[in-house]
Amino acid sequence: MKCFYDGSERFLQFKEDGKIRAEIITEGVLFAKFVYTTQIHAEFSLAEKISVDMEKSKNGFACEVVLGNDPVRYWFEIGGEKEKAFFSAEGIFCRHGKSLEKDFIIVPGLDTPDWSKGAVWYQIMPDSFFNGDTLANKSDSNGTSVNVWGQARRGMNDYYGGDLYGIAQKAEYLKSLSIDVVSINPIWMSTHNAGYGSFDIEQVDATFGGAKALEYLTDVLHKNGMKLVLDGVFQYYHKYGKMYNEAEIFPLQAVAQGDKTYADVFVSNCLGEPVIGTWGHPIIDFSSDAAREILTGENSPVQRYLKLGADGWRLDVGNTYEGSDQDHYGACDTALGAIYDAAKKVGKDKLVLTEHPWGEMFTTGKCESKWNYDFGYAIRDWAAKRIGSEEAEKRLKAAVFSLPLPVAQSSFNFLTTHDLSRILRYAGGDISALKSAIAVQFAFFGSPSVYSGDEIGIVGTPAEFVNDAAPTSFGSFEWNEEKQNKDILGIYKTLTALRKQKRELFASGACLSCACGKNAIAVVRSKSGDTVVAIGNMGGGENICLDLPLIADGTYVDAVSGNTVAVKGGKFYAYVPCGGAVFAKEVPCRYINGFKVFGEVSYLDGIYRLGANAMMEREIYGCYDIETEGSANVRFGSIT
Predict the structure, then answer these.
(1) CA-wise closest residue to 127 among 171, 158, 173
(2) Is pTM, for the whole model, over 0.85?
């Protein structure tokens, strides 16, 4: 039996009065049922379930159900001649597990800003990206040290000198990558080079340029069609910071000196002493009216930075927010809700996403997206050949399609973060594995992110005390173009340009996927007759045949190589080289060896060939000059 469904608008339509229409595409299925429960946090065996028989439709089975206003988890029960099975976000299986967390979910009323749906993100550590003001660097004093651009990190308190002005100066570079959203690490006063552990959340670090630099950066990004999302660390506060002041750095009395001014801000034990958290710092008490006023009030950091032009917050370890009174903002979902409400006071289109969400965080409608570790870990393990294609594809589907649809559309799907080793290091330096991971990541449902430097092939230098975790990914950006991997950069630029051209398809189009043998994963995106077929292939070059629904007939062009394939009767059959391919009916351009190429291109045995109508331009930071026009069998470049 085969069953296809992803919860997108192609398969699920919302009608009036709480009614929905759900349809599944099937093969070899004789009957189907839509089963749901409003007891979404109960165990499967204990949840009260409602089952609705589905009727035969043109492509499978369909039904209409009145669900009301409560969140529901749902799945499908299907049967053939000799077997019965469950179908959920992770695919078909014979027996339902204990939990409902991998089933599909509907949360009425939940939505995310349109700009965040299917957006391409770019993650930046300001200190590591570009030094735009060399007169405002950190010094070798007061707990910090100066490092040389290009050298490996020595620890967590050495600085290269990058800043917010530096990011603004590289806006053309970001624009050439077709980036939609720039996400930056914490920018307030800190002695941690990634920005975690703030001394004063009311001040943008002067060595990053201060509040004026933030305002300037947001203005530059907005003028270039990009959003800016900040990193909020609101769960803990540095013990040497203004409100605790253990080292008496600030010229005022505070908690550590027995002053009661900020005492209520922190979680305390039964003796009234502040609780010190995992990172060695006091924990914010969200049940405290004083704490919430400082964090979320009219003049709070949450609102002030958004008023300066930032477009949203990423909440660091958002799953750990807590309070001393469970009935008064003490539960994690209500603590997050306070930040959400404050952000929405500034603007309805401000985004609130969190790291490590769970349970009721999405069902309250006050957390709009997530750093999708389930997606990231699955695709990283596949690229590193720690799991096969079948397991990886199953985990990728569950990671995204078990989320409410708007959250899935805005899901932050990464290959690398500042907390992890770079994807190329994790994959053992295997560039073909990286290419395969990029192809799947950029085609999948959600919003792909690029970690600064991954696009130019930076591997990262291991640190002895942490192996392959942070700060191996903290290194400085390589701006010397001769040292950049043009092959990898070209693939990123080609696929980001494709997503920009087909924005609606990638934001809301149907997404079907399957494992193709041991080494390959295929992803099909479809909307309104337009189709993209991406195949990540970590084996040798091989012929791959796909028999997935929604593949429209026609001639498809590989956005990477320029090779073509004809599809007839929905049967897709193509040679896919090691590293994969992304086929579309229309490809705006492709980037090869530092050139932007238009027209017919083909690829064979490591050589790209331009057709008679082809033209290429040499790219320099987003500006182009015509280099040459193609002619039959003209060759340029080679990828080994």
Answers:
(1) 158
(2) yes
